[in-house]
Amino acid sequence: MPDVRFELTFRGGGRVAGDMPVEQWDLVRAAVQAGEGVVEVTAGGQVWWVRADDVVFAHSTSTEKRLGFQ
User: Fold this and answer.
1) Mind listing the pLDDT tens digit of every residue in the chain (70 residues)?
2) What are the residue boundaries of the structural domains of the chain, listed by start?
3) Counting Cβ atoms within 10 Å, is residue 6 exposed (0-12), middle (13-18) or buried (19+)?
4) What single-letter DSSP state applies at residue 54?
5) Which CATH code, of 3.30.420, 2.40.50, 2.30.30, 1.10.760, is assigned to 3-62?
């Protein structure tokens, strides 16, 4: 399964960005949309706890590469 390139910006100006598996990003996205809770995310050999109500901006892009023209 492809990874997602993500960026999260937090209240107070902190920011984190990187790549994580899609299923991990789905957990973060669901918590941010709900506006509450803490999500444990494992990505890049690290474990993070994201407090959803402190996220003020979230962005993601698929890292799947395609060759050729469309």
Assistant:
1) 578 899 999 999 999 888 888 998 999 999 999 988 999 988 778 898 999 999 998 888 876 655 555 5
2) 3-62
3) buried
4) G
5) 2.30.30
